[in-house]
Write a structure and sequence with these properties.
alpha/beta, four-stranded parallel β-sheet, Rossmann fold, single chain, five-stranded parallel β-sheet, 3 domains, about 350 residues, 13 strands
């Protein structure tokens, strides 16, 4: 990526951003990209970009783009001195866990996550007391102190494989409510949602016969999509291929044609013969896929932007490199335990 010429950057910005940029904006962003690429080279830095980055960033400065699992693998394999993570904080923390001796930078301090904020390390400790001996699977969309209280992490692409790998009749699966229900269905398990006082939403907490214990936290983007959205689209465009992220509600997933991680959704659009498709996920990814496949029509229901991912800009990415800000720091005791959970996840694949 560092070998891009100015004319190549201009071409990308003109052709991958939906024609929404003025010529003045294109020239301005090209200057930012050039500075970022120069600093990346001189600092021996690796830039990782999540699939939810805007096209102007997604197609220009990252060395690798992908979903959480893919980028975790890239972070684990790098020999660079710096890692700049164009994503949200829990992703940058995961990169730091896998590279404790490297400097990991997050372009914006405000790039948090509503789902990660939905559970604490104390919550996990409480659940372990309620269900002694039951293994804890924690979604990678959590902060390091929560991972540290877990046995293994997972992503949306390998969650079912991680659950099955434990060979346990009962698992605790945290924190996404909808993903937990979807994975419980996929793995043939009943699920309960206990409260902090030990009372379960469906069964008694002592009834642990081949089931999953979940947690009621949700992604503020994916919970907004509804079955009615799909019905309205199918009514107008009956041949539309509908793809939903597994953080969407079980009803939305069931009404869709396909459900998978962001990488899996990208591949599914690429391999499908459908000429119209609808993505029920963060809208910047829709823009990126639309730019990949101009021969197909993406229906523009996908208009929900993650406010946290939206914090990451070319300006902030440049500032992160220039000022070596904002560095991710994780206490050693937490990092050691959290790293084990992440490494076990990567080993599952």
């Amino acid at each position: 990526m560092s070998t891009l010429t100015r004319s190549e950057v201009v071409h990308i910005l003109r052709n991958k951003t939906g024609g929404l940029l003025t010529e003045e904006q294109i020239q301005y962003k090209t200057g930012l990209v050039e500075q970022i690429l120069e600093l990346k080279e001189s600092m021996n830095a690796l830039i990782l970009g999540h699939n939810y980055m805007k096209p102007g960033l997604f197609y220009t400065v990252p060395d690798y783009c992908g979903d959480s699992l893919d980028l975790c693998r890239k972070a684990a394999q790098t020999d660079k001195d710096y890692i700049v993570f164009c994503g949200v904080r829990f992703m940058a923390e995961t990169a730091k866990l896998l590279n404790p001796d490297k400097i990991v930078l997050l372009p914006s301090q405000k790039a948090g996550c509503s789902l990660a904020a939905g559970i604490t390390a104390e919550d996990v400790k409480t659940l372990r007391k309620q269900y002694p001996g039951v293994p804890v699977v924690t979604y990678v969309n959590t902060y390091a102190d929560v991972k540290a209280e877990s046995d293994i992490c997972c992503t949306s692409s390998n969650a079912a494989a991680v659950v099955d790998s434990l060979n346990s009749d009962t698992v605790i699966f945290l924190p996404d409510e909808y993903l937990a229900i979807n994975i419980a269905k996929e793995t043939g398990r009943q699920i309960v949602f206990p409260t902090k006082n030990g009372q379960s939403g469906k069964h008694k907490d002592t009834d642990l016969d081949v089931q999953m214990i979940g947690w009621k936290a949700r992604c503020e983007v994916h919970e907004k999509f509804t079955v009615d959205d799909i019905k309205q689209v199918r009514k107008q465009f009956p041949d539309t291929y509908v793809l939903a992220h597994p953080e969407c509600s079980p009803e939305v997933v069931a009404a869709s044609d396909y459900s998978g991680s962001t990488n899996q959704m990208i591949k599914a659009v690429e391999e499908s013969d459908a000429q119209q498709y609808l993505l029920l996920t963060e809208c910047a990814m829709g823009d990126n896929i639309a730019a990949m496949h101009p021969e197909k029509e993406m229906l523009r229901l996908c208009s929900v932007r993650c406010p946290h991912m939206n914090e990451i800009t070319l300006e902030d990415t440049l500032a992160a490199l220039q000022n070596k800000q904002y560095q991710i720091d994780i206490p050693t005791d937490i990092a050691q335990r959290a790293r084990r959970a992440v490494e076990r996840m990567i080993a599952i694949g």
